[in-house]
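Task: fold both queries, return tokens.
Query 1:
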Amino acid sequence: MSNNHPPYGGQPDPNVTPWGGPPAQPAGYPAYGQPGYGQPGPPPQFAAPVPPPRKSNRGLIIGLAAGAVVVVLAICGAGIGLALVGNDDDPTPKVSGPASVSPSNGNPQPGTDNSAAPEPSESEEQPGSNDAVTARYSSDLSSVCDGSPILNAAAYSGPSGAKAYTFANSIERPTFWSTKSVSSEKPYYAKSADFESVSVVACLKVNEGSEGTPKKCDYKDNSGKRVSISYISSRYAMTFYAAKTGEKIGDGGTVNAPANRCPSFISYNKLTMRSYASPDSGTIEAALDKFLS
């Protein structure tokens, strides 16, 4: 369909159908889809009737519960009465003891108990001395020479296979115990890290008044100045102790500290200009060999 219009004053094109709207409805009739005049509307709606309230059964339930309680109480009272009556048949109570086996016929006899008592458990080992200490280093085992057992030392069970440490004091330092080394080839030798394997401690205590005649030894100090040192001999008493208990287990005899030769290196007291000779290592090893063989 075309929207062309004839020019003003011209004739319409016979091949073109003129545009127009839909045909009009006849007068007096309503349009399609619209209610007609005078048509009735939907019927009026009315509310539904309310039902009457229900009756409560609370009173009936309470009555039934009360009746049940009364019945239960009556039954309990009857049971208690029967129990009291039944106990009157045997007024004397009987005491029974644990049964045991009779030695004659093997039957259990009342009133006897032949069961064995449980064995007490072994208590942990406790230190026997208030002076006992726990060693943290190998040098701590020197406390045995002062009378203190070592809690974590090995137990002494005999000389065979025992490991030993040796300590000695000096005249100028009687409370200080220095380590005396032995050959690592000895069976009783123990490394410093293996101090817990040591069960024997040998203590060399200097004998007071055993000093010999001083020997003069000349040296140069750190500044290059010449100094003269009195080198003094002495004697020691050697004693063996069990490291774990501190108990004396043997004597090692006398060990000399000779000062017949001036050592190449010497430690001395700068105030007294004296130095004391160390115990002879050969004598120490000989005493250990004899005791721990």
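Query 1 returned. Query 2:
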Amino acid sequence: MEKIQHTNVQVRELKLHVAEIGSGPKVVLFFHGFPEIWYTWRHQMVAAANKGYRAIAFDHRGYGLSEQPAEPEKATLLDLVDDAVALLDSLGINKAFIVGKDFGALSAYRVGVLHPERVSAIITLGTPFIQPGPSVVQNHPLPEGFYISRWQEQGRAEADFGRFDVKTVIRNIYILFSKSEIPIAAADQEIMDLIDPATPLPPWFSEEDLSVYASLYEKSGFCFALQVPYR
């Protein structure tokens, strides 16, 4: 079977890490969320390629093996939208089916709204359509102890995550997100405190997967990931 190929593509002022498999005029472009990377889509990429599509997944700027922007604190979702369109340009692709998960869905919606001529169709997971605006996440009130509320606070998640190694942070987030209901932290708790260290990983997320994610977040850190989409 054909293997997923990896390249670095110049996109605007940065080089983005791009994974690709398959060939032909029909293209599927995958947008990951947090705490994810291109690797999230590896199975879907192979499935799409086997159906005759050119399947492409990339690490967003500031994530995984892609380069970090010079001023991550100024980044917005629109940077990811512009990156996606520029990536299509760099790869010589006129139009693509876009698949987005988590905040990748928000980026996918915006590509469709702002650049409809570049989109064949959009499929999203986990995030409904929200009318584009300057503060998509911030404009939807949530409990103070909810993870999104906490991660919006400058420095709070950084201090919380900083108590642990990267692998433990990723493990804890995936355990947290795998619950049927995400718990709310008390005033004297941080988000990482909500996870019992003895809790096993969800069955669909292996130790090997964890190692891959952790190795790439060790490279990129969490600075950009907390800025986009949470701040």
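Both queries returned. Flag for query 2: The domain at 5-227 is CATH 3.40.50.1820 (Rossmann fold).
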